[in-house]
């Protein structure tokens, strides 16, 4: 579990560094912080929480371009793969 979240966090960190827009960069850093908490914490997000993160990442991807967009989409793919294994409430 932590490995997938670490991959997501790392890709989002890279995306934040390449983002041209300050607002996009700030939103990406919020997502980085959230996935960092899952990486080092003793709690896992449930299905609904993951859906919120995925929706946010999809919206950020629409606002991004080039390398930033590619990195967000890579993070999104990893998070979606993880989510498929999470039990729904």
Q: Tell me the quaternary state.
A: single chain
What Rg do the Cα atoms give? 12 Å
The largest sheet is: none
Class of secondary structure makeup: mainly alpha
Mean pLDDT rating: 91
Query: Helical segment tally?
Result: 4
* Uncertain regions spanning at least 5 consecutive residues: none
Question: DSSP strand (E) fraction?
Answer: under 5%
What is the first-to-last residue Cα distance? 19 Å
- Written as H for each helix and E for each strand, in order along the chain, the element string is HHHH
Shape call? globular
According to DSSP, the number of beta strands is: 0
Fraction of helical residues = over 70%
């Amino acid at each position: 579990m932590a490995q997938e979240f670490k991959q997501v966090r790392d890709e989002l960190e890279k995306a934040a560094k390449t983002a041209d827009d300050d607002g996009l960069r700030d939103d990406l850093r919020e997502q980085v912080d959230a996935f960092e908490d899952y990486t080092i914490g003793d709690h896992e997000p449930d299905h609904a929480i993951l859906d919120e993160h995925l929706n946010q990442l999809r919206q950020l991807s629409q606002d991004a371009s080039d390398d930033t967009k590619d990195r967000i989409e890579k993070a999104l793919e990893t998070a979606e793969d993880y989510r498929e294994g999470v039990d729904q409430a």
